[in-house]
Structures are given as C-alpha cells and as structure tokens.
Design a protein that fits this description.
The chain is 57% helix and 0% strand. By secondary structure, the chain is an all-alpha fold. It is flat. It is built from 13 helices and no strands.
Length: 278
C-alpha cells in the first residue's frame, strides 16, 4: 500500500551539506513510506548518517524496513535497533575500520596544528578519516575488546546534539580509551567532557587535543594525583596509521593450521565416542 500523500523532505541546511535529503526522498518515492514523517525525524537520520557513515541509499533501506507496510508508520526505535544490529553483524565478520571510509569532508589545516606533536598530528588525520563507530571499533579490535550496545547509545546521543564534528568526537573516544586506559566509554564521563569542551568552544580535533593539554597542565599545577593520564598520544596505534594492512595471520587460519585443528577435533570426537560406548 503506497502512501497517498507525498510531501518533499525539507531542503538541506548548511549543517548537513554532506547528506542529500532530496536524493533520499527520490529513492523513497515509490515505496510505502510516508515522506511527510521524515521531516519529523530529520535529526535522527543525520545522527545515524554521521555516527555510522550510512549514505542515502543505506538510510533509505533502513527506513523502509522500519516502516509498517500496513499503516505506513515509521518506527524510529526500530530504525535505531536495525542500524545497531547491522553494525554488530558487520563487526563480527569483517574489519569495519578497513572496509568503510568516512564520507565527511577532511578537517582543514589549522594554525593550532603547529602546537601538536607529530603523533598527535597523525591522530588528527586518523580521526578525520573514520566515522565514530568505525574509529571505536578500530581501538577495540586493537586491544581485543568489542563495541558494546551501551557505547553505541552513548555515541548516538553525543552526535545527535551536534556539538562537535565527528573527528572531534573521535579524539574524545581516543582520549578516554587510550590515554585514560578505560575499557569502555562511560556516559557520565562523556557527558562531562562534552560539557567542558562545549564551554571551552572546542570545534576541531586540534582544539580538542589542545584542550586536553590544558586540562593536564592544570591538573599538574594542582599537585600530583593518582591515576593521572600520561600526556596525550605518545604513540599512534598501528590500525590508525596511513597505509596499514593487517597481517594475514590476523585475518584467518592458514590451511595447515586449519587441517591440524580439524584433525584434533576428529580425534577428540573419536575418544568421546569410545568413552560413550564403554
């Protein structure tokens, strides 16, 4: 059942210039989706686009799946759940960091870059090349961890506020997980840092790193404290370096290793069978 009334989605603003709502509307015109509803969920669509790097075609597919065919009603919560499930399935089968490039524009050179160390300048490049979820996934894979559903919710909420560029969000992710050595993103900590950076007028990843410097210098001036993080970005992880290619052993077992594993499993099954027959 096609929706009887089709209204065009509002034109783009300068804040979402890398997402074409008119193109999205054109894709959905022949579907049963009521385009009038999309204007109500404009911010959600931009959030999913910025957070996961979904383009107009991918967004259209998720919107269609999240719309009831009998009532033409769009379910925002179902859309968020579908996008999260899609990411989790992808994360279990492929390296999301290497297979998905960010669609956001590169961060322009800043005069503040001169105040950054060489590793920090490399981090800015890496932060500008990935969407927040892919960037988080890269850090987690490098440390043997995984992206939790709670972390996805935290980042979705942060990105939806539209306070910072995605590259700046990535600097926050890196600081919390790498410099502070925390295993997961914490909502209270993310909210506190976001408030602090917003008050300090942080707008770029360079601004974010300089703000981290100021915070560390202020902490040092107040005297030694336990568990104070080391200076930001002493070394950049291999996965974030330009031209990184994973070793073959990180991707899959060799044929010899696979044959040995199958032989061991066969022998184990045979012993279990023999024990069961006694």
């Amino acid at each position: 059942m096609l929706a009887e009334q089709k209204e065009p989605v509002q034109a783009e603003s300068t804040t979402d210039a890398d997402f074409d709502f008119k193109f999205l509307a054109d894709i959905l015109k022949k579907s049963y989706v009521d385009l009038k509803q999309l204007n109500e969920y404009r911010n959600l669509i931009l959030t999913e686009h910025a957070l996961y790097g979904l383009d107009e075609t991918e967004i259209a597919k998720v919107i269609t799946s999240a719309t009831d065919i009998s009532t033409n009603r769009f379910d925002a919560e179902k859309m968020k759940a579908l996008v999260s499930e899609q990411f989790e399935r992808t994360a279990m089968t492929v390296n999301a960091v290497e297979n998905k490039a960010s669609v956001q524009a590169p961060v322009e050179d800043s005069s503040d870059t001169a105040a950054l160390t060489a590793p920090e300048q490399e981090l800015v490049k890496a932060a500008s090349a990935y969407d927040p979820i892919d960037f988080l996934q890269g850090i987690k894979q490098a440390t043997g961890g995984f992206v939790t559903a709670g972390e996805q919710r935290i980042l979705r909420q942060l990105v939806s506020r539209q306070l910072f560029s995605t590259a700046t969000v990535n600097i926050m992710i890196y600081y919390i997980l790498n410099d502070m050595k925390l295993p997961t993103l914490n909502k209270n900590l993310v909210d506190t840092m976001a408030n602090d950076w917003s008050r300090s007028k942080v707008q770029t990843p360079q601004d974010a790193l300089l703000e981290i410097h100021r915070h560390q210098e202020n902490a040092s001036s107040r005297g030694p404290r336990r568990n104070t993080p080391a200076k930001s970005v002493e070394t950049l992880p291999d996965w974030a370096k330009e031209g990184y290619q994973p070793k073959a052993s990180e991707q899959s077992l060799s044929k010899t290793e696979l044959d040995e594993l199958n032989q061991q499993l066969a022998e184990l099954e045979k012993r279990n069978t023999e024990k069961g027959g006694q």
